[in-house]
């Protein structure tokens, strides 16, 4: 991987969730790059740490979670080490966020237009009224919303419209990276397709990079260039999407792909669960020993150029029929 | 039309009229429940002060004055008409002074004190509550502020007594009672008079403010913390907005909404407390007048004051409710 | 001709009055045969009326017009005893595997209540045997789950407990209202597998209510596609999904992404049927 | 945030703080402090009634206007002094405190019971019943109830503590009703209520066995709110001379002290002792209320100030 092409370089990112009895490892030393113009899919099931990773990139992990280490280099600048002011400037103008569940992501007491204007004013200073209106209208048009949406309040929009308003807001400053956290998971399939199309269109238009977080492998198959599969805070496999689907190496990746039902092929249902005791969900580090007992990140080996996977010959990756329960 | 809709206004007005009618009706029937209202009242005073001068004549005069010998519904209709036209008749204890003129003199004082104290305590309490929950608040403030909230638990009246003891009796910083120094003529443009009003009003206002501020502060703090967990606040942070903008437009604006509801529900209590504080400080408002009316068994005066107090509160609530949709655009959609 | 297990005829449900009226269901007919157990899918998007239909069948809401009969007897005219029997024979599992458990009680509570209300066992030991058996069917062990509080279990365990509870009553029909839409892929497979086993090994029919056609494709026998309160297409699941006839069915099926990057997902296909509009008064 | 991880973390915090679920309310320091304060007052007035002669609370049983024993002119015969009608302060307080608390208890009990009944009726039945109850409680919430209580009290020829408590209770139901109605409305939509209905559980059983236990923190909060609200209203009526005439209450003692110009005469013990006890009671109840609030809304607990 050549460094110059990378918009984002994440190294050894660690996030812990503090509890009274010690820390839960949410993100266990994750490393990955996002190249210019590409869409990276970050997939995993609930508790895999994919959303936490995304929020950590923006330094938005909220208590009881906290970032305990790593670097997030955006265009060569470490966001985790940046001071508040710099961080605030980089947010949105460089990295924007399309949140999970846009239902509650818009401020209910501000008009949609004002919430978009907010980012423009904050990052670009005062703008003239008419030009500003035109710009917001243009943004809304880009995502297929009529200009009048500008003057509406969030509760007056349907779910799909809200999500599109969030997309319009995310592209307002032409950021080089857009983080989309399950942008369509709350939508009906037909609306999901429309929103997915909008998302890809605006991304292409801006030529920005995108991290698309999701759990739906089918959706990922069509929308991303590369996929990173997360399990229990680790990236266990990462590579070009076609490669991953054609030749999944890690048992967890195989399991994820296999468990997606298809409408074209009826296949037997294989109920299975993976158990990875050493990095299982809710692993607790005992209090006071958080730092010393850090777990080593999972080692990845190169399957083929650009396709990496964790060694899975370890017995702990056996497929079992048990449901993982947290201790 | 967003914000205020006619349906919402009509519903609120309906509630307003209904509340007034219900309170007026309760006040009409209460005295008549226990038989003869006049005798009950006189009996009470006799109990208290041992003897009422000219008790018999008083009862007879009352009966005539209030048409107590008419059929009940005639009395009721007359009563409603009188209430509607603010015709409360003559004060029984200060005949031939009209109840209206007594109340008229007292109401501006009460309204003034109540408004100043309510606005002050609401604003201060809300700001303190917001600061308590804000991450950037200096540590010192965070430690000191909760202490002041302890006063919340103490009723206005008791706090007023403490203030009198401390500032009037011990430190002699403030005048004992009344609304202004005796000898001055009420004149809003006379600096001496205004100064005196402020001096006399400080302690009563202080006891209301200090005692009620904490309620708003606690409520605000709770709401700020709740809002902090909301997705739109995370997004506001992701947007790189300035902390001040996030605090005011995203966090406080949303946390304020339940505060306003709390204000609506708390106004009745504030009015009640103000009445007691006024009585305690001998303030020339409705509180002192009400106490006087009770000790004098001034039937008409009590009725008049209580009706005006209710009217004031309910009207204030109506105004807040009509403003509310402007703060929260969702409100008029609630009943869909 | 034998009586069907469940028959819904002309079911119509209107919420609200006059100008605010919203028709959630319009003249819906549905039959589940009494013979061999089957899985009948009701598929539709939010607002299609599928949950209203489930609620009506479960007796949580009444119909504006139409009837629901269970083995020839109209639900509306059931005696107290008849209703209890219906409750026992027609059970349900729901979408949210957390909210269905009362946070005040331990997991055991939902079994205790069912045993008590339906008088399933003469004594505690017999009851425990029944519960153990039901848990075994869904692959859980009593000592691992019964004395825990709901928040101490994983989503998959909670969802399976709900299925065990339904199984405990030995019902003829289970209304499964979006049972897999809030769980992870791995749990989803487990739940679908249990549904199949209950159908094949225990003769329990399902009314599978979902927005997810691909899972229906995997396990469903018959399917009804519901659109704005009306059934627009029905038939054998694979026949309908492989060759949809109605415009809406085509749109719905065309919108589903296929888990294969080689297959082109036509993002630009028309979406005329779902004209989204702002919800302004 | 990842909801699963957050939930795990929260569950761990909870487990850490409370050992097991349901979280033991006695882990909350504010709640415990408040309960201890109120408990001490109850116990000490009870003991006081055993060791001190309560007949001294009657007029003209003692010398007039004596200061407490540690002030010049005071004596151990009347350790907390006497007031201007010859009543012993200690005896007054020993008799007055439980009366005041009783008023609070009666108000709290009645208002909570009425709140449960009306709140469940409104929330569970809905429809016209709900509309009527909602409008009435909204009305009762917005009017200054002290004003109406004054009217009522003014016509009661002979007031005693119980009557006063009943009058106050008549106006104290609206708050609990509103709160319980809101809770029932949201609980009615919960999955576990549907689940109970699937198990053929009757409506009454759903209300009392499924819903009510989850309301316990709210009921406790409403009970405490009722107590302090009741005592507050009582103090208000008493201040205006509308309190019970024969049996002393704390508020009545203060009110008489104010009437007797105790502040300006420097007789601080006359109003001071009952006022302090009242304040301590209010602060105790306040602490309990905050503690209960934190138990019902765990988020508040996480953000300690």
Automatic annotation (TrEMBL), chain A:
The residues forming the signal peptide are none
* Gene Ontology annotations for the cellular component aspect, listed alphabetically: plasma membrane
Q: Which UniProt keywords apply?
A: ATP-binding, Cell inner membrane, Cell membrane, Membrane, Nucleotide-binding, Translocase, Transport
The record's annotation in PROSITE patterns points to: ABC_TRANSPORTER_1, ABC_TRANSPORTER_2
Q: What is this protein called?
A: ABC transporter ATP-binding protein
Keyword Transmembrane attributed: no
Q: Which domain of life is it from?
A: Bacteria
Q: Where in the cell is it found?
A: Cell membrane
> Which GO annotations describe the biological process of this protein?
peptide transport
Query: In which family does this protein belong, per the annotation?
Result: Belongs to the ABC transporter superfamily.
Positions of the ABC transporter domain: 8-257
Q: Which GO terms describe its molecular function?
A: ATP binding; ATP hydrolysis activity
Is Cell membrane one of the keywords UniProt gives this record? yes
Q: Which SUPFAM superfamilies match?
A: P-loop containing nucleoside triphosphate hydrolases
Membrane topology summary:
Peripheral membrane protein
Provide the organism lineage as a comma list: Bacteria, Bacillati, Actinomycetota, Actinomycetes, Jiangellales
TrEMBL record, chain B:
- Output the Gene Ontology cellular-component terms: plasma membrane
Q: Does the keyword Cell membrane apply?
A: yes
- What Gene3D superfamilies does this protein's entry cite? MetI-like
Per the record, the similarity remark reads: Belongs to the binding-protein-dependent transport system permease family.
List the PANTHER family.
DIPEPTIDE TRANSPORT SYSTEM PERMEASE PROTEIN DPPB-RELATED
GO terms classed as biological process: transmembrane transport
Q: Tell me the InterPro entries matching this sequence.
A: MetI-like (IPR000515), MetI-like_sf (IPR035906)
The lineage's top-level taxon is Bacteria
Every ABC transmembrane type-1 domain range: 107-324
Cellular compartment(s): Cell membrane
Q: How does it sit in the membrane?
A: Multi-pass membrane protein
Listed A to Z, the keywords are:
Cell membrane, Membrane, Transmembrane, Transmembrane helix, Transport
Tell me what this protein is called. ABC transporter permease
Q: Report the transmembrane regions from the record.
A: 12-30, 109-134, 154-177, 197-218, 260-281, 301-327
Automatic annotation (TrEMBL), chain C:
Q: Name one Pfam family in it.
A: ABC_tran
Q: Which GO terms describe its molecular function?
A: ATP binding; ATP hydrolysis activity
User: Keyword ATP-binding: yes or no?
Assistant: yes
Q: What is this protein called?
A: ABC transporter ATP-binding protein
User: Can the keyword Nucleotide-binding be found in this entry's annotation?
Assistant: yes
InterPro entries assigned: AAA+_ATPase, ABC_transporter-like_ATP-bd, ABC_transporter-like_CS, P-loop_NTPase
What keywords sit in the KW lines?
A: ATP-binding, Nucleotide-binding
Domain ABC transporter: from-to ranges = 6-253
Q: Which residues cross the membrane?
A: none
UniProtKB/TrEMBL annotation, chain D:
Q: What is its main location?
A: membrane
Name of a matching Pfam family: BPD_transp_1
GO BP terms: namely: transmembrane transport
Protein name in UniProt = ABC transporter permease
Cell compartment(s), UniProt: Cell membrane; Membrane
Q: What GO terms fall under cellular component here?
A: plasma membrane
Organism listed in the record: Jiangella asiatica
Q: Which PANTHER family match?
A: OLIGO/DIPEPTIDE TRANSPORT, PERMEASE PROTEIN (DPPC-2), OLIGO_DIPEPTIDE TRANSPORT, PERMEASE PROTEIN (DPPC-2)
Q: What is the lineage of its organism?
A: Bacteria, Bacillati, Actinomycetota, Actinomycetes, Jiangellales
Q: Which residues form the ABC transmembrane type-1 domain?
A: 97-289
